[in-house]
Every structure is written in structure tokens, then in C-alpha cells.
Amino acid sequence: MKTIVMPYALYGYPTKMESLSLIRRFIHSGATRIEIGFPFSDPVADGETLQKANQLALKNHPTIQELLVDISSIKRDHPQVKLTLMTYLNPILAGGIDKTVGSLSTHFSSIVIPDLPLEAYESYLSIFKEHSLPVVPLITPDTSESRIKEYCEQADDFIYLVTVNGITGTTTGTKKDLQPVLKKIRTHYQGPIIAGFGIKSKKDIANLSGTVDGIIIASEILRLQANGDFKEIEALVSPLRK
Amino acid sequence: MKSNGYYGEYGGKFMPETLAGPLENVEKAYRQAMKDPDFLEDLNKDHKFFIGRETPLYYAQNLSQELGIHLYFKREDLCHTGAHKINNAIGQARLAKRMGIDHLIAETGAGQHGIATATAAAKLGMKCTVFMGFSDIKRQAHNVDRMRMLGATVIAVEKGSNVLKDATSEALRYWVSHPTSCFYVIGSAIGPAPYPEMVRNFQSIIGTEARKQCLNQFGTLPDEVIACIGGGSNAIGIFSAFIEDTSVKLTGVEAAGKGLHTDFHAATITSGKVGVFHGSKMYLLQDENGQIKETHSISAGLDYPGVGPEHCYLNDIKRVDYRSVTDKEVIEAFRKTVRSEGIIPALESAHAIAHVLKSTYPKGYTIVLNLSGRGDKDLDQLLREHKEEVL
Ligand SMILES: Cc1ncc(COP(=O)(O)O)c(C=O)c1O
């Protein structure tokens, strides 16, 4: 089984231009799926690195409309690359959820919203479905079997497997054996399972490759981006091509 | 009115998946506890012997005379630890203990909820970690010392605007990282279900007592019940007993800070827009892109951009009238109350008083005002920043 690496870029961090050029770098390094974060003032599922990056990005006053304009040229040049948006619910609601989801679906293949769990599906999922923008379920090692089943029934683009009970970039969260949860997901879902949270090194990637279809790397990429270590980013993004 | 954690369209459970299990456990334990005579008996004893309930319904004679009305204070300032927060903290701490969890975490703005939680933890032999914004730590230094003395670890949150919302976000992150080993004692009627309902019920003792006291002391229900609104727990606590009494007007008073026309206020219902934050759908102070705004209030306990979902609903159905007063009006109300009644109110509670002072009422109108806490915690700040106005 081939394991892809899905890198993360935060729109507006450190500037809008630089986040866009990072996305282009990902593509040139061979990324086929990219997660694009839209900043939020109070990201409760995120660790230190992403919180700080969100704060800095917000100083550049990003809007979803601008993101869509900026991303359209990348999408035009690389229509085959799948883009997933990650943000919190409130920025999606602010401009009118129907209108916002409708316009997002033109460039994004799916969306990750950490504060939209199963309990909230009833209120909002139909809007995303109407516009064919799949909401990616986040499943953790402790998610109950009945919830997993419900998530799997609603999942389309992929399932996001949260590898730790914790926040992004964390090393303090409890590392869990992923085999039991993977098995449960597999009985209900045949599409891609992509794992994320706390994955930093090539060793982490090697440990997971073969067991999941893909790996999301966010905080570590932001850290490397801040240091200007673009060669390392390239190496992380395309490790399995060599 | 409430179904599935919703009040009309407000409320819900908008939390990271990691907390789905823990929230379910809290809800289950809470429902069982409220049916368990032993749990209720323990809580009852805490009320009487630890908190010092019932708190008096005090006739503020001098202010009443001056205003030509009958003004009563429900004296939550006389609760052990100095504010209504202890009613809720003890309830949740006992619940955690029942669930076999011995580490409490809490967020605090004014420090009152932090102290209440640290106190409950000390009493019940539990570990306690309190998250507090760096600005609030400076405003409420005494309370930080008290929490430490009680054995709590106080974590200074230097993020965002360094106030209550940031402390709340950080406490939530801590809970996401330790979902089964700690219990999050939320300090107001906010957050994901079942918290708004649970906090309301632990605070409903205020209203239950006040209503009975009205009938005993002056033989009828009041014309109006007034309370300040941060997250809304002291207000929903006293309102809860009067909601069905349609003859009683209910008024919630928010922090207008430096004025509603400025960016420096925390008047969420008065000038917010519906959104989702910290686990529930509610009115929110936010910009046009859905980013949460920084807030301002002279009182740390009201400095929060959201408000409990039940209040949002009560606003929409027009059962409660939500108003706001400025920092300046609050300082004046504070001074007046101290001088006229010999009571030092918390700056939060002084918001409710300020609203009374600026309103006009028919002669003989009867008001019950929830004096949510005492102002000792605010003296340092007042003497530092407003010496001329209060001395
Ligand atoms: C004395 C006092 N009153 C009121 C409040 C506001 O909170 P709530 O609206 O939850 O009662 C606080 C919060 O810290 C407080 O300490």
C-alpha cells in the first residue's frame, strides 16, 4: 500500500503570498493532496505552533473570499491536486453558511472542521452535502464503534484519523495503538484513511506507512517554514518517491 | 424549551471528537446524580454548612428611600469564598468525585470561579489546576494567591487577549489532551451540553431561595429581578425560579465597557451576532469574518465574548430584557452602594446596580437584584486605577 503525505499550509502565514508559494512548493515536491488551513482566533484543537501561526496570519486579515481568489490559479494550473480546507465552524457561518459552502466547493474537495462533531451533523451536514463538499470526519482511537459507523456512513473524500488524544503538534497526548480503531473503521469504510496530529519525523512516517493511506503533517511543516528549511519540507513531503 | 442540549436554536455540543466520550460520561453521571438522594443530601449539607446558605434577601433601605422604590439584594456575596460561583463548583466537584476523577481543571476571569473550584478541591481532597489570563492575573492578584494557598496550580495564559476567553480555550485544550484523567469544571452557563443546563441547575438554588423569601418577607413576588451577565450563571440561577411568573420582569445587565459605540465592551447579547464558540451556538462578539473579538470590561468576570445559550433564547422570546452599562456608571454605582448600604459589591454585581440607578421606576416598585459577589477582590484594581472616584 502506498502512503501519501498530505502537507499543511496556513493561509496568510506568514503572509498570504508566502503561504501560496508554500502550496506551490508542495505540489512541485509531488504532493497530491494538500490541507489548507484558514485561520481562526481561538483554535481549541490546536497546539502552541498552530495557535501562534493563526494569530500571526490573522494580522494579515485573511478572508475566505480572498482565499478562493488566490487558490483559483493554483487549482487552474494543477487541477489534479486535491485541496482540503481546515478551519473552525464560526468563520464558515459568518458570511452565511450556504453561500460560503457553495463557493468553497468550487476549489476544495473536502473540509475538516474540528468543532463539527457527529452531534452537530444534524444541523449542518445537509448544507455541505447539497454543495457536494464532503465533511471529513475526525475519528480518534477512543471513538466508540457506533460513532465510527455513523461517521463512516457520512464520509466521502477521506477519514481523518487523529493519532493521539490531544491537540495538534502535541507530544504530551497519549500515543495509542492504532490497530483496533483502524480495524473498526475498515469494517465500515473502504476509502482513504489519513492520519494526523503529532507526526513530526521521517521515523513517525515510516512507522505509520503501510497501516494508513496517508499522513498529515502540519505543525512540523509550520516550524520548518518559519526556519526557512524548505529543503526539509520537500524531503518530508516526498519521502516515498525515492 | 430545552431538547437535546438546545434552547431554541442555541446550545449544542460543538467540541473536538476527543471530548465526545468524556462529555457523554459527564452527562450520564450528572443525570444519575440528580436522581440520587445521597448526592442531593451531600449537596444540601454543603449548602447549609459549607457555603452558608440560605443567603439573606436584604432590604437596601437607604438606596430604596433615595430612589423611591423597594430594592432588595440577594446576598450571594455572603456565600463562602465571596460569590455565587461556589454553588456550582461544589456541585461539579462532587460529580467528578462520583465519577472517580480526582483532578479538577477550571478557567477563571475574576478569580472567583478559580477560588471556588480550588476550595471545593481542597474540601474533597482533589487536585486542581486553574487557567487564568495573564491580564486577569494582574487585575486579581489576591485571588491568585488564595488559589495557590488552597493548593491549586494556577497557569498563566499568555495568548490572544490574555483574558477569560483565552483561559477557557486553554482549559479546553488541556481537557482535550487529558480527556479521561481530569474533569473540566466550567464556571458559567456556557460550553457544550450538558454544561449550560448543569450550571443552571446548580445555581438555581439562588432563585428558589429568593422566590420563597419574597413571599415570606413581603408577601408577594417582586416586579422585577435583575442580575449582571458574564456567561450568565448568576443571572440564570436567580431567573430560573421566576421564568414562569410572567408578571415578574427579568433584566440582564451586560458590560458596555467604554461604550457600545467603541470596540471596548463585552455586551454580547446587546450587540453580538449568532455564531459557534467554545462548544455552543450563541450570541457572540465577532468580526465580519467570524473571528472572535477581544472584549473589554472593568470587571474581569464579565469580560467574555459569548453568553449562555439559554439567555440567547430568553432574549429572542423576549422573556428577559438585556441592557448594558458602562465602566463609568459601574464605578459610580459601586461607590454609591458602599456609602449608602455599607456593602462592597463585586464590580460584576455593580453592573446590575448601575442599571437600577440609571432607570426610572414607578413609586413603590419592587426589585430583587442578585448581588453575585463581594468586591474585596476588586479593591486593589480600583485603588490603582480609580482612586479619586471611589475614595
Ligand atoms: C461576582 C461575580 N459576579 C458575576 C460574574 C459573572 O459570571 P456569570 O454571568 O456566570 O454569573 C462573575 C464571574 O466571574 C463574578 O465573579
Helix and strand arrangement:
The complex is a heterodimer of chains A (242) and B (391).
Chain A: E1 4-10, H1 16-28, E2 33-37, H2 48-58, H3 64-77, E3 82-86, H4 89-94, H5 97-104, E4 110-112, H6 118-130, E5 138-139, H7 145-154, E6 159-162, E7 164-165, E8 174-175, H8 179-188, E9 193-196, H9 202-208, E10 214-217, H10 219-227, H11 230-237
Parallel strand pairs in A: 1-2, 1-10, 2-3, 3-4, 5-6, 6-9, 9-10
Antiparallel strand pairs in A: 7-8
Helix pairs in contact in A: 7-8
Chain B: E1 2-3, E2 6-7, E3 10-14, H1 20-33, H2 37-51, E4 57-59, H3 61-67, E5 70-75, H4 85-98, E6 103-108, H5 112-124, E7 127-133, H6 134-139, H7 141-149, E8 153-157, H8 164-177, E9 183-184, H9 195-218, E10 224-228, H10 233-239, E11 249-257, H11 268-271, E12 273-277, E13 279-284, H12 309-316, E14 320-326, H13 327-341, H14 347-358, E15 366-371, H15 379-385, H16 387-390
Helix pairs in contact in B: 2-4, 4-5, 4-9, 5-7, 9-10, 13-14
The complex binds pyridoxal-5'-phosphate (PLP).
Pyridoxal-5'-phosphate is lined by residues 83, 85, 109-110, 112-113, 188, 228-235, 301-302, 346, 348-349, 372-373 of chain B.
Describe the main β-sheet of chain A briefly. 8 strands, parallel
Largest interface chains and counts: A-B, 46 and 36 residues
- How much of the polypeptide of chain B forms β-strand, as a percent range? 15-25%
Structural class of chain A: alpha/beta
Instruction: Tell the overall outline of chain B.
Output: globular
Q: Label the overall shape of chain A.
A: globular
**Which class of secondary structure composition applies to the elements of chain B?**
alpha/beta
> Roughly what percent helix of chain A?
40-55%
